[in-house]
Write a structure and sequence with these properties.
heterodimer; A: 338 residues; mainly alpha; 13 helices; 75% helix; B: 545 residues; alpha+beta; 4-stranded antiparallel β-sheet
């Protein structure tokens, strides 16, 4: 296991190296002035420019510039956003929890719904239930998320008027900022309207979570179903059945454990898709997360922000991927080989 | 076959969870206390600054000005008269160059997280506020670039000689020359009074930049927070000197997307929505839970000729072009009938409106005859510049240009439509690179001068804002005379003459005075559109249905 961990971390180092090189070169690849792209300052006078050139070591060779860049990233100096002229790290810190919150709830929902449905579909692959679950999964899988989100807004917000159409919480509820995770912040806050605010925040959370969870749920259903069918064909299941265990026991003790192993790995693989979809969901529901921010930044040609967004999101995806790989290896000794 | 126990249990459990969540979320919408006592205004954009002196955009003014600040004098929106604000009383010297204001003594500046006032509002604050605009020695003058667009457009620095506090509660403005629009300028949303004490505190703390970011005023609401592109939050100023502020909390929810703003109104996430799209008004008005308010606003959309460029230097050509345009069709297609046809540049709501002007004639035949007379029997080719943005006075300049293109083809004039990105568009206009342009003007105060001087004076030509590139000493003479007298009868006579003169010379073709709309939830009362400036939400009140 230690050797495996070591190998993985070594590999990750190279990935991050490549990523940081890309992020670094973006400063040059983006149109415009390199000093502006790096600092995020809009107007730079001559004396300031000289200071900045020295600070960013732009007068040195590329390698030294790159090392200086790494050093700044590590020390939290990410430059300013063109749009707001605020430090980027500060902005990202405020936005990231919103995205993580949404993605986490969606992922959770996809487990809660996807795994049981997948099992059911695997057990009765030819019955009406099994077939309709597969069909639903297929439909959900191919549903364009933009259209689906707008459809839900049209129905629940505009037609029925029961759910809000945008945002994380009603704007009239002032929630003091602690962690950035809305539900946690509400529970932590010393406010008289905690109950109302919680209710309101849940209402706001419902539609985006459902929309974002749609795709991973269907993937989960299909994946669990296939894995389950596969496991069910294995000899050790037959042996267990022959020994006289009933279906439930076999399923729980031998089937589920083996079938769910690859699911752990699947989380890591799905995470990048989830983040991409989260960006779309954030745009549809005006969710103030990092995805919407990044898309706005692209529209506004806010190069420093694009660079920072890319760095944060890629790092996150790589880290989660790696973490699930390691978890998978931890539970599955076979994966540690090779 | 029987379903395995665990699977069934998990299925039942998860579907139960989901339905609980759905139920919890979708139970009948009730209004908790926080929502009842607060008001949400959905705004079309973010504020640029929290100091009204430094901006001209209507979006910013709507959000900050009437809510956070007071002015020395105000306008009664019902009749346009000037009424006391922070000044209880004022005297004008006989020659009209000295204005003395007596100030209220019971007014407190806001107490917030970042500032607690040590004294009440007094003359020092007024001097501080107006010196910031004119005096380069003022510690805050260059804060934010030293740009005060509205005051620069009315040549404030050239007009006001000095502002002086004669005692704690009396302020004297000395002017270089009499100017009858002076008081009107003080009523505008830009002339908000700032706190001198707050300024000193910020200077001492070495943070002068906070002045325009964390506002301190005397208005009905005090500032709480601004989350860029998300919201502006304010709470009621319980010590407001006028009293009677209704909402406990006021939130400006920033929703730039038109359709989304409408959706939020329908789902009751917003109580008031600015600028609903004219094309959707009927749809909105059909809903029982929403009211549409309208008001004739002080604006004009027009088609200006570059009168220095041939053939537009010929009066007959300008008149011919004016006659060739079918305004009825334009009003219908571009304004959806929600505008008054314009006979001149001054809207009918102004006290100086000339109702003796003839209705503009639409006659392609006569237009052709005039063109032939002017030496263009076969017409000519020209450009129409259409502004790329939507404005109150012209919701769709490109569409208007296309209609006009068809009209002009009738008289043999071939028109090309030209448009640039908004900033370069205005820059090129300022250099008079255009043949003709579709643009307009929205007034900042009810004084008629606000339509004439910034649009058609020689000074405006020099500063590039005279879109007709037109400088007529005779016309300039009339409008400057109107400023020198305070007698409203005399002024009115002069402005009537000015309008008549414009009608004869036709440097531009006025097209329409557009109405301003806002959509408001039926459960909210006490809000109306102020024709002279930003929206005031002090009296907004939620009534239970």
């Amino acid at each position: 296991m230690t050797r495996y961990l070591f190998r993985r971390l070594f590999l990750m180092m190279f990935v991050f190296l490549a990523l940081s090189l890309l992020a670094f070169s973006l400063g040059y690849l983006f149109p415009g002035d390199i000093v502006q792209n790096l600092s995020g300052l809009r107007q730079i006078d001559e004396s300031q420019r000289q200071q900045l050139v020295a600070y960013y070591q732009l007068d040195k060779n590329y390698l030294q510039q790159y090392l200086a860049f790494l050093n700044r990233i590590v020390h939290g100096d990410w430059g300013l956003s063109f749009a707001s002229q605020q430090p980027l790290l500060q902005e990202v810190k405020l936005l990231l929890p919103a995205t993580l919150e949404l993605a986490a709830y969606a992922l959770l929902l996809s487990f809660i719904i996807g795994i049981p449905l997948g099992i059911v579909a695997a057990f009765k692959p030819d019955s009406i239930i099994g077939k309709s679950i597969s069909a639903l999964a297929m439909i959900g899988y191919s549903l364009p998320i933009f259209w689906w989100g707008l459809l839900l807004i049209m129905f629940f917000s505009l037609a029925l008027g029961v759910l809000p159409s945008a945002g994380r919480i009603g704007v009239l509820y002032e929630i003091p900022h602690h962690s950035g995770f809305m539900l946690y912040d509400i529970l932590q806050a010393d406010i008289s309207y905690r109950q109302e605010a919680l209710h309101n925040a849940l209402q706001h959370l419902l539609l985006p979570t459902v929309v974002l969870a749609t795709f991973p749920t269907t993937v989960m259903v299909r994946f669990v179903r296939d894995a389950m069918l596969n496991v069910w064909e294995q000899n050790y299941i037959k042996t267990a059945r022959a020994k006289g265990l009933n279906r439930g026991q076999v399923l729980y003790r031998h089937g589920l454990r083996n079938a769910l192993l690859p699911v752990i790995r699947q989380i890591g693989l799905q995470f990048s898709t989830l983040i991409t979809l989260a960006m779309l969901t954030e745009v549809i529901f005006s969710w103030p997360g990092i995805g919407r921010w990044l898309i706005d930044s692209i529209y506004q040609r806010n190069y420093p922000a694009i660079q920072a967004g890319l760095l944060v999101i890629s790092t996150m995806v790589i880290a989660i991927n790696m973490l699930t790989e390691i978890l998978h290896a931890f539970f599955n000794p076979l994966a540690r080989r090779g | 076959m029987k379903l395995p126990d665990n699977g069934t249990r998990a299925l039942v459990f998860s579907s139960a969870m989901l339905s609980i969540l759905l139920l919890l979320a979708s139970c009948k919408p009730y209004l908790p206390e926080t929502a009842r006592s607060g008001l949400v205004y959905c705004s079309e954009g973010s504020p640029e600054s929290f100091n009204p002196q430094r901006v001209t955009s209507g979006t910013t003014i709507d959000i900050i000005s009437q809510q956070l600040y007071d002015r020395l004098v105000d306008i009664n929106p019902a009749n346009g008269n000037i009424i006391p604000g922070l000044a209880t009383d004022w005297q004008v010297s006989a020659d009209g160059t000295r204005y003395q204001f007596t100030l209220r003594q019971d007014v407190e500046f806001h107490t917030t997280r970042y500032f607690s006032p040590g004294r009440n509002f007094n003359a020092e604050d007024v001097v501080f506020t107006f010196n910031r605009i004119t005096s380069t020695e003022h510690p805050f003058h260059f804060q934010g670039g030293g740009v005060y667009p509205y005051f620069q457009s009315v040549d404030w620095a050239g007009l006001v000689k000095q502002v002086q506090a004669t005692d704690q509660h009396t302020v004297v403005f000395e002017l270089q020359r009499p100017d009858s629009s002076f008081l009107s300028n003080l009523t505008t949303d830009f002339a908000a009074i700032l706190s001198a004490e707050y300024g000193q505190k910020l200077l001492a703390a070495g943070e002068p930049g906070q002045m325009d970011r964390l506002p301190i005023g005397t208005g009905p609401f005090r500032f709480r927070e601004y989350q860029k592109d998300i919201l502006v939050r304010m709470y009621r100023n319980n010590d407001y000197w006028r009293g009677d502020t209704q909402p406990e909390q006021l939130v400006f929810d920033i929703v730039p997307n038109n359709a989304r703003r409408m959706a939020k109104l329908f789902t009751h996430e917003c109580d008031i929505v600015s600028y609903p799209r004219v094309a959707e008004l009927e749809l909105i008005a059909a809903r029982p839970d929403v009211t549409v308010q309208e008001s004739t606003s002080m604006n004009v959309g027009f088609w200006a000729f570059n009168t220095q460029k041939p053939p537009f230097d010929q009066l007959a050509v300008r008149q011919a072009l004016a006659m060739a345009i079918n305004r009825a069709a334009i009003l219908q297609a571009v304004y959806y009938g929600q505008a008054t046809p314009a006979y001149g540049i001054l809207p009918p709501t102004s006290w100086a409106y000339n109702d003796g002007l003839p209705a503009p004639l639409y006659s392609p035949a006569k237009a052709r005859a005039l063109l032939a007379e002017a030496g263009y029997p076969n017409g000519f080719t020209m450009d129409i510049w259409a502004m790329p943005v939507q404005r109150l006075y012209n919701p769709n300049a490109l569409k208007m240009a296309e209609l006009m293109q068809a009209d002009l083809a009738q008289i043999g004039v071939k028109a090309n439509i030209v448009s640039y990105e908004w900033n370069s568009f205005r820059q090129k206009l300022g250099n008079f690179e255009h043949d003709s342009v579709l643009i307009g003007w929205a007034a900042d105060n009810p004084d008629p001068d606000n339509f004439f001087r910034p649009l058609l004076s020689c000074a405006a030509r020099d500063s590039g804002s005279n879109r007709a590139n037109w400088c007529d000493p005779a016309f300039d003479d009339i409008i400057s005379q109107a400023l020198l007298t305070a007698n409203q009868q005399q002024r009115r006579a002069l402005y009537l003459a000015a309008q008549q003169y414009l009608h004869q010379k036709q440097p531009l073709v006025a097209i329409a005075h557009s109405q301003r709309f806002q959509a408001i939830s039926s459960s909210v009362t006490g809000v109306s559109i102020n024709p002279y400036g930003g929206i005031a939400l002090q009296h907004a009140k939620r009534v239970e249905p």
